Amino acid sequence: MSSQIRILFIIDGLHGGGKERQLYEIIKVLSKTPHLKTGIITFNKNGHYSNKIKELVTFFVELNKRPTRLEPFFTIWKHIRVFEPDIVHTWDSLSSMYAYFPTKIFKLKSIDGSIRDAGIENGWQLCLKKYFLNRADLVIANSIAGLHHYKINGEVIYNAIDTRRFHQKKLSNEINIIMVANFTEYKDHKTFMEAAIKLVNNNLISNVYLAGDGPYKQTHIDNIKANHAKIFQRFHFLGFTNNVEKYLSKCQFGVLCSTSTYSEGVSNSVLEYMAAGLIPIVTDVGGMKEAINNNVNGFLIEEKKPIQIVEIIQSLQKDSKKTVNIILNAKESIKTKFSYEQNINKLITIYKKICIKK
Length: 358
Known about the structure:
Elements: E1 5-11, H1 18-30, E2 36-42, H2 50-54, E3 59-62, H3 71-83, E4 87-90, H4 93-105, E5 109-115, H5 123-133, E6 138-141, H6 144-150, E7 155-156, E8 176-180, H7 189-201, E9 207-211, H8 217-227, E10 235-239, H9 244-248, E11 253-256, H10 268-275, E12 279-283, E13 299-301, H11 306-316, H12 320-336, H13 340-356
Parallel strand pairs: 1-2, 1-4, 2-3, 4-5, 5-6, 6-7, 8-9, 8-11, 9-10, 11-12, 12-13
Helix pairs in contact: 4-5, 7-11
């Protein structure tokens, strides 16, 4: 093994989700770390983080998985040979599948980082994911719940949050709420919207922010316009935003509604709420108990129970002492369990150890 470790990340796309944000945060640090060289292969072009990551890595390739999903099986080989990595670190099951044969043929160390949930796949997709997980040299998950769900041994590296990103909150008479999540079947915007509508109608909340995009966004916009026109202007659909910190600084409460069907690992959005000084209110599924100690540094609610969101916010508005304590506890959790330096240093240590075993 040379003194320099070459790490190739492979990811299905560089969209605007939490997984992609984490990869960006990791590469920011690794690009400044001596004796490490990073490269990336992604299967979608012009992603949300493409330009930012391209500036940080020494090797950057965007492959098009269209017109056929088989194409990357053939094209990925030559790019791996050009970069000559010591480690191939995949971030999703699709990438693990495309990288499997090249890593075996070229005798490269493989890290499967596809466990970022606690139960999205089922049927043949679950079988395929477990097949590749069991054949990686190491599995890294972002929650203990994820490892347990897939019944596999591995390392847990929690999402690392750079607290320097977040702005000082400005004094305001407004009480605002936000949900940061793409509008897909994996998230439960219906529950959030029901709670938000009730909160606004009862004048418990001034504004509602929704950061994220996706196929179901327009459905929720149309519903508010058609059925709640009087309060429509208080709902702000932000789409993808490069500056979510700006909107977190305006809010007091951060909500993430999920379902047991698709579950969660440890959500990046929830950790951002905590780091930014918001009170997190989160559906109790998957690995969220690993981040939220109910009634201590945030709140865990039952699935599809919008009234619980309303009741929590209503009660906290009458208890400023408890509100302050929860915010302080949440920030302390970020400093200790979800420390930026601690988690990325752990990852670097793993890279060094796996190369020694080569």
